[in-house]
Structures are given as C-alpha cells and as structure tokens.
TrEMBL record:
The keyword Kinase does not apply. The keyword Flavoprotein applies. Its cofactor is FAD. It comes from the Eukaryota. Belongs to the FMO family. Pfam families: FMO-like. PANTHER family: DIMETHYLANILINE MONOOXYGENASE. Keywords: FAD, Flavoprotein, Monooxygenase, Oxidoreductase. This is Flavin-containing monooxygenase. It is an enzyme of class 1 (oxidoreductase). Its EC number is 1.-.-.-. PROSITE patterns: PROKAR_LIPOPROTEIN.
Length: 179
C-alpha cells in the first residue's frame, strides 16, 4: 500500500521533510505556491546574506560547494545551494510548483472523541484511524483547482511548513473560510 505524505512549502524545511519522508518509504508531494524552491529566500532582497556562518547553515549530508568561500554566503549562493540539494537528492520530481494550498479540512470523528486520551495513548495514532485530510490546491499557472485527499486509514499524512515571513500563508483556523 502506498504511503502518501502531503508537504506544504518547498523552502528549507519542506525540502528536508521531503527527503526524510522519502527515506522512510513514503511518497511525498510538496505543494509550492511559487515557481521555484527556496521559501523565504525567494522573497528577500538580492543584497541579503546569511546571518549565520555557513558551517552552521549547512545540511548535515550535503556540504557547501568549495566555490563558496565566504563565511556568510549571498542570497544567490543560498538559492543555488538549495537548488543543488534538491537536485542531488531527487526532490524536484516530488514538488508541484505553482500550487497554492487554499484550504485544509480534517474530516473525522467528533471533537469529543478526538479529545479522548486513548487516541494518543500507546499507539501514537492521532485522530484515530477513520479520518481524512482534504487539501484544496489552486494551480496558479492554469488557474484550476483540485482537491487532494489524504486518508489517515491508508497511512497518509500532510506536513504544514510554517514560515514566519511567508506572504502566501492562509488562515486554516476552523472559523476562517478564505486565505
């Protein structure tokens, strides 16, 4: 049985989530609202540099290229590094670009049942085994909308990557109906 994972965002955390889920045998789909990877790095000024020395801002399994000699790489060097990482580990084929998540809805047991301790105790199965997540995704390139369903009973999940400065975040609270 295919084990699917939906990941929202192809920034640094989304790339890591994609690589990790692949390593655990899952089939990830990364929904990226823009046409490229990089998250907040796609929205910063071109004069921006890392504020953390590059040895600390480095994937543990993917060193910076030797051509980057600066301790604080530039905006374009960071984006190139992220692109190289995604290419090296074959992550790009799992990314749906120009795919903005409009809504996330959980359909499952009533809230009272979800509050019950047994749902979390021992088995590690949040929301029981009868729920599903519906992700409504807008293809910003051809302006179509599609609903992706992740059924918990079929070992499917989604991961929401939260970026503080993201302008593309929707309000997914139960009281909100729009982005």
């Amino acid at each position: 049985m295919e084990r699917k994972v939906g990941i929202i965002g192809a920034g640094i955390s989304g790339l890591l989530a994609c690589k990790y889920t692949l390593s655990k045998g899952y089939t990830p789909v990364v929904f990226e609202s823009r046409s490229s990877i990089g998250g907040v790095w796609t929205k910063t000024l071109e004069t921006t540099k890392l504020q953390t020395p590059k040895p600390i801002f480095q994937f543990s399994d993917f060193p910076w290229p030797s051509s980057v000699v600066e301790d604080f790489p530039s905006h374009s060097q960071v984006l190139d590094y992220l692109q190289s990482y995604a290419h090296h580990f074959g992550l790009l084929r799992h990314i749906k670009f120009n795919s903005k998540v409009l809504s996330i809805a959980y359909e499952g047991p009533p809230e009272e049942e979800m509050q019950a301790w047994e749902l979390w105790g021992g088995a590690g199965d949040p929301f029981g085994s009868k729920g599903k997540w519906n992700l409504t995704v807008n293809d910003t390139h051809n302006l179509s909308t599609e609903v992706y369903i992740y059924i918990y009973d079929h070992i499917s999940y989604f991961i929401y990557i939260l970026a503080y400065f993201s302008a593309d975040l929707c309000d997914f609270s139960p009281c909100s109906s729009t982005c």
